[in-house]
């Protein structure tokens, strides 16, 4: 018995350490990485052993699980910052926090390379925290207009879309949480169906970005990026309440997020916003039927294990927009008289009611993304996304009910992206399937036909880093197949009842082309850097440019396409000079872009189209070679510890080289400046007062008698902002912002507004914005 007891004791002594080791191989190490200024750093590589790595998310958080008790060497690396190497022992779950300090000579590389948002030689501009706060409640395009070189085009004050260096619509890619937005963006009055509240970062990449992002990125890319989910708190969130005087409406938004206690690797977020605004007012009158209603919501999940991250995201955007009824006109004489008068004949009372003509648009996006880090220098990303865009446009009907849409289009899109990243190289495959169907029963012929589109792209990018010089080169090949079926008018044949005969149009088109990029970033001094990027991109003509022949009810125009249009090819050279001094910050973008077979809609003032619905201005799609060139300037100067001056300027020139004429709808020269006084210095960056001035010149570079009305005069606007940040206990914050747009209540029109023929822009507007974060 004694021998058996000794044997049992020896067995227990041998097994207990093993059991103990197994019990302690479930240790979780988590934490956050931030800059010296306290800003979270995303995509920091964290290595804890030869085969164990993790990457911080956009909020700077990381997780390493299933670690055993013992001593570890941990390293952090992030381009543009000095690396960190530490040794420590762990015996239980541990939370760490690291601060990375910039490597001065490479500080400009961080935003481009570290976050892997675009090419290192491209010009990247991000809205500051102040700009994001000031623009809360605005549309995406209105928010981006604070960036030099970005303006807007649209219909009045509720339907606007971004313009980058003179290009818009299908020539700009919008990446919504890493997914290229696929809606009916071909229309000038088809605003992006995105809720800016979902974004933590709003960025613009200028230049031809066809290699990384795909065909259509002739003008640039807009990045709408949510923050990473904060998994270090069980519950956190933010709420916004915004009110405005012009339109007598407001916006509410709320977001909650956290980690699941029983599953610490799992994080979640839910968010929703709603908007209700009535008719907007110019300084002298109400613009009837221009209200807006929105209901948007989204949800996200993220799960991290070992070297894997799984992300799921869903968002819904729903809006109803009124279209100024005075733009829908009955006769030729009436349209000429209204344009000559320059303002509505009718007097409208303020109302929240949205009647025909109006738009009702919904957009749903679902995304699933898996990322696997093989080691610190190699990762694989696989992403699938599905989108459904449902657009309904209503017009005033003479017989049927106004509740029956004149246009009812459903566009579904599926994308699959596979990207392999290894150190300084990326290769990938991207595919896109679009199916557009016009819902029958509208009683009208759709302006664009039904179509199926299939796209496949292959790309590769490599970067070189030699001291102060960074260079990159990339190439891409895309193929697109378009299959079309829909009814069209045969204008040389009339039925017995006097109506125009229709026929069934069927067509197939194949487009393919190559894209390329080559660029360099050179640090002349620790504070002065120079970027140069030469990008080749292309775009196949869209369905409306090829086949439209009818009334575009959303814009109150008659559009006529051309089935013989060829693909656009654009070669853009952009040079950027950056000075990042202690008191002076300066960025200058100088660019030139040659667009071969540029497609544009030319207004024809010598002709209008009369239909049973009324009389409409005629826009005809044409194609010629064009040259765009210009400069964008941004300057900031710290006058004193609390006083700061900022200014931006944009100049663009565009010529039709084939006809030696000016192109229509090109933004005129503009200049913005503002001076702000910080109430509490850097301790509370959102406590300040600011006075701003905007100047937009008259567009003198246009062809006389080529439009229904000459470009409007130049205008000056004054804006005022006062913001106060309150730091509460436990890291909570409360912010109050009061602002006045168009302080002087100036009456003005903008050349890029399609409603300028009939009405003015919005007058004075008071805003009150309350934000709470915990």
Descriptive notes:
The chain is mostly beta strands. The protein has two domains: about 1-100, Sandwich (Immunoglobulin-like), CATH 2.60.40.1120; about 195-774, TonB-dependent receptor, beta-barrel domain (Maltoporin, Chain A, Beta Barrel). It contains seven helices and 40 strands. The chain has a 22-stranded antiparallel β-barrel. Strands 8-14-15-12-13 form a five-stranded mixed sheet, with no helix packed on it. β25 (about 450-465) and β26 (about 470-495) form a beta hairpin. The longest helix has 22 residues, at about 1-25. The chain is globular and about 90 Å long. The N and C termini lie far apart (about 65 Å).
What distinguishing features does this structure have?
five-stranded mixed β-sheet, 22-stranded antiparallel barrel, 7 helices, Maltoporin, Chain A, 774 residues, TonB-dep_rcpt-like, Immunoglobulin-like, TonB-dependent receptor, mainly beta, 2 domains
| Extended strand count | 40
Structural class: mainly beta
What would the principal axes of the Cα set say about the shape? globular
The CATH class of the largest domain is identified as Mainly Beta
Give the low-confidence spans.
Answer: 6-23, 110-117
Supply the number of structural domains: 2
Termini, distance in Å?
A: 66 Å
Radius of gyration: 28 Å
Q: Would you tell me which CATH topology of the largest domain applies?
A: Maltoporin, Chain A
CATH superfamily of the largest domain: TonB-dependent receptor, beta-barrel domain
At CATH's second level, what is the architecture of the largest domain?
Answer: Beta Barrel
Strand content: over 45%
Overall mean pLDDT stands at: 86
Q: Helix amount, in percent?
A: under 10%
Report the major sheet.
22 strands, antiparallel, barrel
Number of helices: 7
